[in-house]
Specification:
- The protein is an alpha/beta fold.
- It folds into 2 domains: 174 residues, Rossmann fold (3-Layer(aba) Sandwich), CATH 3.40.50; 28 residues, no CATH class.
- It is built from 9 helices and 5 strands, in the order ααβαααβααβαββα.
- Helix 1 runs antiparallel to helix 9 and helix 2 packs across helix 9.
- The longest helix has 24 residues.
Length: 211
Amino acid sequence: MKAILDTLIERYPALATCRDSIWSAAQALVDSYAAGGKLLIAGNGGSAADAEHIVGEMMKSFVLRKKLPEGYGDALVAADPDMGAFLRDNLHGALPAIALDGHVALTTACMNDFDPQLGFAQQVNGYGCPGDVFLAISTSGNSRNVLYAAVAARARGLKVIGLTGERPSKLDALCDICIKVPAVETFKVQEFHLPVYHCLCLMVEHHFYKD
């Protein structure tokens, strides 16, 4: 894991200011997954796209082959010898992750029934369990719906990781760990966010799946 982080800083020297927070975030994810937890992610606009991107890296193989849990291949074959064998040979393992931006029916119901800013918080309330991790992505750190979700996460016993720009923000006080990339303009912040979360995905994957 350290070598992966070193490579990130070598490629993006400006991110040296984030080394400790990235390392702490990776450790928090490892601890959560090791205890059977999951990752919930929320963001708006480009940050919503980043949330979906992270799920794509976590829920299947990224760089390493994520192996199925021990015994699951045999259970698949026992359930159906033909289809189970195909599933055993082709399914990837997964690190459970849910992006909270994509549930249109639920989100629009929240918008219609009580408050459009509470869609993420409602999902944290429903999905979140103590020991899970909530990743709050906000270039400003002040997105109201993300802040509400962070409060809900803390109340339910989730660890909160922020991914923001360098300016002080309201999200800072709600995070256990905040990765503040060294940029202010939205597009520049987003340009740093991608290598940061790729690094996190790689670090966690290597912890659990490197032979």
